């Protein structure tokens, strides 16, 4: 084999390897088909509808991308309930309690938006602060 052709083939192999690595990094190790087929239910999981959809659809239960976002959405739902319960205590503390409750609600809203954006972009990155708790769900 001549030297020029060999260099072209080696370069092509390097490009293919880099592309595969980049795709794996972009999609968090998920198959591209999982991301493509699971974007809608992953986004909707943050609206509770996707969690119900995931529970009822056996195909989605096998989709790692959707499962990741369902777990993140469940953690966010639990955090939202905790903030709501805390809010009932905080509203009775004038000014400081009200401000604290408002900050917590705004924080939950920001985390919710971050989860949705990560699902829309096909990423499997944990939601900051609370996302690591999703690993405790064993389903």
Number of domains: 2
The main pleated sheet reads as:
none
Gyration radius from CA atoms, angstroms = 21 Å
Beta-strand percent range: under 5%
Q: Looking at the structure, what is the overall shape? A: elongated
The beta-strand count equals 0
* Fraction of residues in helix: over 70%
Order of helices and strands: HHHHHH
Instruction: Return the average pLDDT rounded to an integer.
Output: 85
- Determine the oligomeric state from the structure: single chain
In short:
It is built from 6 helices and no strands. The chain is mainly alpha-helical and 139 residues long. The longest helix is centred in the middle third of the chain and has 27 residues, at 64-90.
Explain what you see.
The protein is mainly α and 139 residues long. The protein folds into two domains: 1-29; 31-136, no CATH class. The protein contains six helices and no strands. It has helices at residues 3-26, 32-44, 49-56, 58-61, 64-90, 96-120. α2 packs parallel to α5 (64-90). The longest helix is centred in the middle third of the chain and has 27 residues, at 64-90. The chain is elongated and about 80 Å long. The N and C termini lie far apart (53 Å). The relative contact order is 0.12.
């Amino acid at each position: 084999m001549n030297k020029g052709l060999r260099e072209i083939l080696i370069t092509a192999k390097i490009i293919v390897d880099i592309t595969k690595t980049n795709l794996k990094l972009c999609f968090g190790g998920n198959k591209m088909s999982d991301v493509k087929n699971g974007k809608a239910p992953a986004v909707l999981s943050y609206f509770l509808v996707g969690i119900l959809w995931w529970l009822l659809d056996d195909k989605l239960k096998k989709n790692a991308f959707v499962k990741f976002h369902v777990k993140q959405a469940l953690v966010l739902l639990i955090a939202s309930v905790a903030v709501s319960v805390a809010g009932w205590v905080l509203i009775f503390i004038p000014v400081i309690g009200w401000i604290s409750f408002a900050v917590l609600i705004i924080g939950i809203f920001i985390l919710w938006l971050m989860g949705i954006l990560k699902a829309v972009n096909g990423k499997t990155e944990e939601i900051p602060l609370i996302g690591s708790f999703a690993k405790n769900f064993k389903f």
